[in-house]
Every structure is written in C-alpha cells, then in structure tokens.
Amino acid sequence: MEGAAGKTRKMQVSYKNMKKIHGIVFVLPWLIGFALFFVTPLVSTIKYSFHQVGVADTGGMTLEYVGLRNYSNLFHQEVSSQSQQFLRVFADENINIFINTPVIVVFSLFCAILINVKFKGQGLARVVFFLPIVLGLKVVVDLIMVTTGGDVADAVVNNNFDSEMLIDFLRTYTFLPREVTFFISDLASNIFMLLSQTGVQTLIFLAGLQSINRSLYEVAKIEGANNYEIFWKITLPLVGNISLFALIYTFVDMFLKSSISTEIYYFAFNKNNIGVGSALSVVYLVNVLIDLLLLMFILNLVVKGSHAAK
C-alpha cells in the first residue's frame, strides 16, 4: 500500500507545472504551423537579402552574394513608391503606431463598456455595431450604396471632418496646446479608420467584462460607490491582463497593415528587386521585434509602478 501511495505521489503534477503543460498544449498548433509553413520562407528571405536574385537563361533562380549591399542600398539609394527615404518611412510608421495603438485600445474598451450595458434591443445594437468590423467597413459601405444609390454612403464615409473648425473651437474654449489640438483633430478625422480597427479588441474586452463577477458591482453599490469609482476600482483592474493582450494584438496588427508591407511587395514583384525587398522584410521584422520589446519594457515599468503605489 505504501509503495502504491508513493508511486501516486510521484505521478501527481503540481498546479504550477500543470499550467505550463496547458500553455504548451495551447500554443502547440501554432508552433507546428510555424515550423511547417513559416520557417522555410523566413530562412529564404534572410538568404535572399544577402544576394542579388536573378533569373537564369535556362530557367530557375540565380543568386549572387553581395553581402550587406542590399541593406546599404535600401537606406542610401532606394526610395519608396511615394519617393520617400526609408528612414523617414520607418520613423513615420513607428510614430503613428505608438500614438494610435493606445487610442485604439482605449476606444475598444469604451465601446465594449457601452455594448455591455443592458438595454432593450441590445442584440440588434451589437449586430449593427459589429457588422462593419466583421465584414469590413468597405463591404458594408458597398452594401449601403447598392440599396441607397450611394449618395448616403458617400456622404457618411467621404465627408471629411471640418478640422479647422474643430481646431479653432479647441484652442478658443479649452486652451489646449497647439500640438494637442492637432492630435485631437486627426483622431476626429480618422474616426472611421479607428472604428474599423477596434473589432477584435472590443470582442476581447466584452468577453472580459462579462467574466467579472456581478456580485462585486452589487457590493460596491451597497457600499455607496458611484459609477466612476466602480470603473477605476473594479472594472479597470480586473481587465488589466486583457488590456495587455489587446495592446500587444493592436500593436502587431497595425504593423501588419502598415505601408511597409506594400513597399515589400512593390520592390519584390513590381520592381523585380527581390534582394532589396527581402532586406526590407528583414529590417521590418527586426523593427517589429525591437518595438515589441520596448513596449513590454514600458508595460513592465508601469505594472511595477502601480504595485509600488499600492
């Protein structure tokens, strides 16, 4: 009996190790897919970035090793399809992503809170709200144009917000700095773009909000807490991990949709310069990894600061 009990104890796995096993099983399909479909193209891209790629007379591909010449030409000789230097392109993309990522995450949380409120016709409101996000804003606009002749849709989508009027209003009545007013004006002008990029994040936040125990809100209201205190003391802390996930997802998603992806296709296929296009892909990948590490470092400092404040 003692021997059987000892074997049973040895076979038992601790809760911490079981969580690690579950995590490995969860990401195993992605690891298998990455090994089967992405490792070879990734290695080939890195290889082509150090070669001048051409077509042989008898067919097939020829490779001439050129070292770092493709990388040097990328930043000293080549320009983008918009006739911009790539240092400027990368700088603009990074600034745009670091500014818009927190805006999209905050807007997604705001939308999720609005949709999570109980009211009549909630299901219909969710369908109407998520239709442009699931199908894409352009698809929904095309459907509206088919049914209305296009006038209403064109007025809704193509009508640019009067930026000058908004800037004058903000500077007159809010006394905000000029840079802040321009930033708010740009957000208002790009509201449809922001809305089209908040779908997945809103669903993530909505799932997180619905997983919060409702008794916490009931106890807070009994204790006399108002909605503002409930949000900052209960809702926001409990969706903290989800906010981190949504932030990283938005960050990566914006990189995938950036203009640099179009530039890679432009060099590799339109200009038939696979070497420089591959070098741009490698630099782009390194840039994404560095920005992700920087984002994780900043988030780690914020989390440590919040714990220290408590």
What's the short story on this structure?
The protein has helices at residues 2-11, 15-37, 39-48, 69-76, 86-116, 122-135, 137-148, 151-157, 163-173, 178-189, 191-196, 199-210, 214-222, 227-238, 240-256, 259-270, 274-309; strands at 51-55, 61-65. With 310 residues, it is mainly α.
Entry keywords:
mainly alpha; two-stranded antiparallel ribbon; 310 residues; 2 strands
Fold and architecture overview:
- The protein has 310 residues and is mainly α.
- 78% of the residues lie in helices and 3% in strands.
- It has helices at residues 2-11, 15-37, 39-48, 69-76, 86-116, 122-135, 137-148, 151-157, 163-173, 178-189, 191-196, 199-210, 214-222, 227-238, 240-256, 259-270, 274-309, and strands at residues 51-55, 61-65.
- A two-stranded antiparallel sheet has the order 1-2.
- The two termini are 50 Å apart.
- The model is unreliable at 148-161 (pLDDT under 50).
**Shape category:** globular
Give the mean pLDDT.
Answer: 77
Order of helices and strands: HHHEEHHHHHHHHHHHHHH
Largest sheet: 2 strands, antiparallel
Stretches with pLDDT under 50, minimum 5 residues: 148-161
Helix content: over 70%
Biggest sheet strand order reads 1-2
- Structural class assignment: mainly alpha
Tell me the quaternary state: single chain
Could you give the count of β-strands? 2
Distance between the termini: 50 Å
Strand content: under 5%
Q: How large is the count of helical segments?
A: 17
Write the layout of secondary structure elements.
Layout: H1 2-11, H2 15-37, H3 39-48, E1 51-55, E2 61-65, H4 69-76, H5 86-116, H6 122-135, H7 137-148, H8 151-157, H9 163-173, H10 178-189, H11 191-196, H12 199-210, H13 214-222, H14 227-238, H15 240-256, H16 259-270, H17 274-309
Antiparallel strand pairs: 1-2
